[in-house]
Amino acid sequence: xxxxxxxxxxxxxxxxxxxxxxxxxxxxxxxxxxxxxxxxxxxxxxxxxxxxxxxxxxxxxxxxxxxxxxxxxxxxxxxxxxxxxxxxxxxxxxxxxxxxxxxxxxxxxxxxxxxxxxxxxxxxxxxxxxxxxxxxxxxxxxxxxxxxxxxxxxxxxxxxxxxxxxxxxxxxxxxxxxxxxxxxxxxxxxxxxxxxxxxxxxxxxxxxxxxxxxxxxxxxxxxxxxxxxxxxxxxxxxxxxxxxxxxxxxxxxxxxxxxxxxxxxxxxxxxxxxxxxxxxxxxxxxxxxxxx
Length: 292
What we know:
Elements lengths: L8 H34 L16 H8 L1 H4 L1 H26 L6 H13 L2 H12 L4 H8 L16 H26 L3 H9 L4 H12 L1 H16 L3 H6 L9 H11 L3 H25 L5
C-alpha cells in the first residue's frame, strides 16, 4: 500500500508538489499547448474545417506576405500601435498627478478607471451613437463653431482608423493608469520630502524619482499595450465589422478561418501574429531589462 511516510522528507515534498500540479498542468496542456501545436500543424495545410488536411508547406505564409488583401491589415495595426504610446503617456500623466495631494482625487481615479470596467459591446454601441452623423461629436463641434471638421467618422476610410484607435485609447487607458498609480504609490514618501528640501519641483521628482522607480512597470505596460494593439479586435469588429478599411489583423484572421472556411490560412495568420508579439516583447525586454 502506498504510504507517504515510507519516503524521505525531500521525496515527500516532491510527491506533494507533483500531486498538486498534475491536474493544472494537464488542463494547461489540453487547452493551451495542444491547441497551439495543432494551430502550427494546420498552418501548413489547406484544411477548410471538415475535409481532409493536405500538406501545402509554406504556401499559406507566402500568401500572407504577398497577397495585398492579407498584407494590408498590417498597416491598420499601426494606428493602434502608435495610439498605445498616447494611451501610456496619458495614463502616466494622470497617475503622476493623482499620486500627489489633489482635491477630489478619489473621484478622478474612479472616472479614469471606469471605462475599463465597461463591457466592450456596450462601448462599441455607445460610440456608434457618438460618431454617427448628427451625433454627440458633431453636436459638440457645431457648438464650438468647428463645423468644418465634421466628417463621416466611421464612413471615411481616411478617418475611420483614427476614430477607432481613439476609442481603444479611451477604454484601455484606465488599466494602465491604475497600474502606474499603484507603482508610484509604493515609492516611500521620505524620498519626496528629501527632494523638496533640496529644492526639487514636481518635474524633477517625476524625472529623477518616479520614472526610474517605475521603469519596469512602464516596460510591463508597454508590452501589454503593444501586444493588445497588434491583436485589436473587439472595438473595430463591433463598430464597423472591418468595413471601410478598418479590418485589423485579427478580424481578417477570424473572417479567413470561419467566414471563408480557410482554416489553414487563418492558422498561418495566427502563427504570424504570435511571432510578431513574441518579437516585440523580446525587443522591449532588451531595452527595458530589470538590471537597468
